[in-house]
Amino acid sequence: MDGSATVEQLNAQKELVRKLKQAAKENKNVSKEEIDREVKKLLELKAQLEETVTTKHFVLKAPKGTRDYGPEKMAIREKVFDVVVGTFKRHGAETIDTPVFELKDTLTGKYGEDSKLIYDLKDQGGELLALRYDLTVPFARYLAMNKIKNIKRYHIAKVYRRDQPQMTKGRYREFFQCDFDIAGTYDAMIPDVECVRIVYEILSKLDVGNFAVKVNHRQILDGMFRVCGVPSDKFRSICSSVDKLDKLPWEEVKQEMVNEKGLDDAAADRIGEYVKLSGGMDLIETLKQDSQMMADKDCVSGISDMETLLEYCDLYGVQDKVVFDLSLARGLDYYTGVIYEAVLKGVQIDGEEVSVGSVAGGGRYDGLVGMFDSKNKVPCVGVSIGIERLFSILEQKNAKSSTKIRSRDTEVYVVSAHKGLVQERMKLVTMLWDSNIKTEHSYKKNPKILVQLQECESAGIPLAVVIGGNEIERGVVKLRDVELREEVEVSRDNLLAEIRKRLNSS
Question: What is the reported pLDDT for 370?
Answer without folding.
Answer: 92
